Amino acid sequence: MNPVTPAIEPRLEATRNACKLCTPLGACLVFRGIRGAMPFLHGSQGCATYIRRYVISHFREPMDIASSNFSEGTAVFGGGENLTRGLDNVIRQYHPELIGIATTCLSETIGEDVPGMLRAYATARAGSPDLPALVHVSTASYRGTHMHGFHDAVRATVAALACQGATLPRQINLLPGLVSPADLRHLREIVAAFGLQAVVLPDYADTLDGPAWDDYQALPDGGTSCSEIATMGQSLATVQFGRALALTAESAADRLQATCAVPACKLGLPIGLRETDALFDCLARLSRQAPPEPFVKERGRLVDAYVDGHKYLAGKRAVLYGEEDLVVGLAAFLTETGIVPVLAASGGKSGVLRQTLTEAAPETASKTQVVDDADFVQIEAAAKALQPDLVIGHSKGAKLARALDIPLVRAGFPIHDRFGGQRLHHLGYRGTQELYDRIVNALLEKTQTESDIGYSYM
Amino acid sequence: MKNQEAPQGEALREKVLAGYPAKLAKKRAPQLVVNHTHADGQVPPVKANVRTTPGIITQRGCCYAGCKGVVLGPTRDIVNLVHGPIGCSFYAWLTRRNQTRPPTAQDENFMTYCFSTDMQDENIVFGGEKKLRAAVQEAYDLFHPKAIGIFSTCPVGLIGDDVHAVAKEMKEKLGINIFGFSCEGYKGVSQSAGHHIANNQLFKHVIGLDDQAPEGKFKITMLGEYNIGGDAFVLEELLARCGFTLVATLSGNSTINQFERAHTADLNVVMCHRSINYVADMIEKKYGVPWFKVNFIGAKSTAKSLRKMAAFFDDAELAARVEQVIAEELAKVEAVAARIKPRCTGKTAMLFVGGSRAHHYQDLFAEIGMKTIAAGYEFAHRDDYEGRRVLSSITVDADSRNIEELEVEKDPKRYRKILSDEKRQKLASVNFEFNDYQGMMPQMDDETLVIDDINEQDTQRLLELCKPDIFCAGIKEKYSVQKHGIPCKQLHSYDYGGPYAGFQGAINFYQEIDRLINTRIWSFIEPPWEVAASPTLEATYERG
């Protein structure tokens, strides 16, 4: 039976059950991935609180975000004074190496000149040994999604700190996007195996997935240091993940190429064989070294698993949603396994979702319904007509999976209805392998649970 | 592990304050108070409900959070439409795990739904009223709900969108109740402002619309119970068993029709004084319904509250049923307490949460022999610390002045003199208090530390100095507290456990605290090679 392709429900004026988060959240995640940095929101204190509680619910780690705490009066008369006091207090209490200042809708709506205020602040304190690097990123939530905040913060950090200089021949920049701490650790391992040194931005592998403390850590251990970021202009190349990002925005990689002549290698998110092959191929070229044997074996095992699991997956139909680059990465992978991504949805609206999907998953792209600027009401309506077998995405798809009575394989962010979201692997041959196993097992579990006989051989 | 040398009283207070630069310490000092209850019940003043200093990492949320998330969150049949950019709506989407029980699958429940105008750049520049109007129409077309609430986020007030005008216009057009909330995030100093704005609007636009009282004797309305972890379910069942008729709850497991007829009760009982005491006052003034404070957290407090309610109605049969329920339930509670108390006695707790929870939960800890050594609220006012006796001496600052105080008059048609002057006097003669709340501090031991609006740095200093056996707060504090090897119990969301109200709730709580503080996990934190004079290592060296 071949279900008809449904017409997508028209987008209403209202967004119902959003499939995106707000821009400053993305920026705060980036600043948490810089060593000794404090994320700071210029605007209402509630934004800091909401974002903290949301990030914490996924990572199950402390996440401090300071704010300039506007009052009604500040909203009318401007927040310069609050910004100064806020920065002073953060510096005195936390002694950060960097403060990442993102704006909220409040300060954006009243049109605060934050760069000007920060220049004045730094000038007034010039020479002070305590003065940290101040990085500003404009993050009005009425412009874009959390991914815009994320990528803009990476670009702003690079723009503020990276300098030109003699090329460091064994150093590359790695801009992974919003991936899990486990993925970050794995990426580091891969790059190191090629004999390369990676400056990863952001790197919250330890700050958002750290051990118990011996002593209080005002700012959590880990992250990429300002001095490392300063050398990003001297790297051999910048490796950036995200096919949609590559087509839509002036990214940090573009910036480094334009200002410091660091070549940009723009890849898809390395999920599945082909996208991961592209990463290994890129690293092999940069390092002039063949992919190390353990990873070649991982690739071999992944292919072997594809063969072994094919009977369970071939022809199955999946619904994907989430950030555009994650959706494209998942589609590229699923297509290799025999699964048809029948629906690819995102709250983002870059306009390139269809194009990037066609490039990354050419075999099935014509069978994939693409919905951007989507909310979960649209996704659910479209999914119902498509008769899918499984859903892959973050926790907000739980309602959808329940309505369709099919498994939800959790991936991405936020995952707050399961334990260990921060430790999920998605990337590389190894991450793909784990994701693949989870998908096969989710389908097996459903078959087993629904069987009257109770087979223990599946 | 336990810090025997932990400083106390003024010494502890000074050590916590010493962490601040001088100027900040001076500003912060009146918010840290060593408790001392004088013979007349007076306690030292606490500076509360004042704006957090910029750059200080507070527990507090915003006005919108208090309005949309807390007060209107647990009502299932109002469509809540957030007017603003997407984040505010997304972050308030079922995060408090509001529970509700529609009587049938056909009954409306919009709580799982997150409805936002998702304002974009052009709406900020050209105004968002047109989009809001369209969204209200869509919500109506989709659901035909009884009511729609519109919640304003920060940009709305700044760009001058008039949500109340849109609400009025659409109410007339669609013929259902539609009301707006000017709960922009920057108003007030905490979510407390949002509670007030939410409750004011419910009072203006909903309460009193339906004079049809439910059938039954001993009608009460429960104010300030938000059904976290299913608390309201436990209490509904308990009250019904005792013979009370629950007209409405504001707002745990509620419907709009409950709100509409809330004024038909003969008694209002107030759980969370902070979020709703002014509603109790307004209902009394307008409709004549008397109120008093109760506490259903803790088995003894629950028994005491039920007895007080029975005494109010002065009915022998009711009193007998209440006594019977208390006897049956206390027997079960005491059996569990007897098992757990020896494992918890002498342990110490700190509670920094909410506007009443830091007070109420001390009762539960006391029932298993634990001592509260420090406590404070996130968004309370002075009266919640010191009692309503200080109400007249509270100074109103610019942040509070911006929150509307409603002028209320007697409703000529609906006002009922429920409590005769004679009866009121008679009850007063046996120390029966109406319209009163003693506050948290008189119940706490002398020399304990009270901290208002605790922040991340205070918390860290307290943990290091005192090493309490348990710390109660919310999810933002949970993981940094636990990094120290100290368990943290969330009292906002109950760590998605509970219920903890009533008698069954007390049993659940004792068991939960026992599990948390007596876990063996903390003994594994240090690996053997880091323990001084490790026998394993010595043995290895000797052999080598």
Q: Can you give a write-up of this model?
A:
The complex is a heterodimer of chains A (458) and B (544). With 458 residues, chain A is an alpha/beta fold. Helix content of chain A is 46%, strand content 14%. Chain A is built from 18 helices and 14 strands. In chain A, the strands form 3 sheets. In chain A, strands 12-11-10-13-14 form a 5-stranded parallel β-sheet, with helices on both faces. In chain A, strands 3-2-4-5 form a 4-stranded parallel β-sheet, sandwiched between helices. In chain A, helix 1 packs across helix 7. Chain B has 544 residues and is of the alpha/beta class. In chain B, 43% of the residues lie in helices and 12% in strands. Chain B has 22 helices and 14 strands. In chain B, the strands form 3 sheets. In chain B, strands 1-12-11-10-13-14 form a 6-stranded mixed β-sheet, sandwiched between helices. Chain B has a 4-stranded parallel β-sheet with strand order 3-2-4-5, with helices on both faces. A 4-stranded parallel β-sheet of chain B has the order 7-6-8-9, sandwiched between helices. In chain B, helix 3 (63-71) packs across helix 9 (191-205) and helix 9 (191-205) packs parallel to helix 12 (273-287). The longest helix of chain B has 29 residues, at 316-344. The model of chain B has no long low-confidence stretch (mean pLDDT 94). At the A-B interface, strand 1, helix 1, helix 2, strand 3 and helix 3 of A face helix 3, helix 4, strand 3, helix 5 and helix 6 of B.
Overall geometric form of chain B: globular
| Rg of chain B, Cα atoms, Å | 25 Å
Please state the overall shape of chain A, judged from the principal axes of the Cα atoms: globular
Largest interface: A-B, 70 and 76 residues
Strand content of chain B: 5-15%
Which CATH class of the domain at 219-344 and 391-428 in chain B applies here?
Alpha Beta
Q: Give the mean pLDDT of chain A.
A: 96
Q: Which residue ranges of chain B are poorly predicted, with pLDDT under 50 across at least 5 consecutive positions?
A: none
Number of helices of chain B: 22
Strand order of the largest sheet of chain A: 12-11-10-13-14
This entry's quaternary arrangement is heterodimer
Q: How would you characterize the largest beta sheet of chain A?
A: 5 strands, parallel
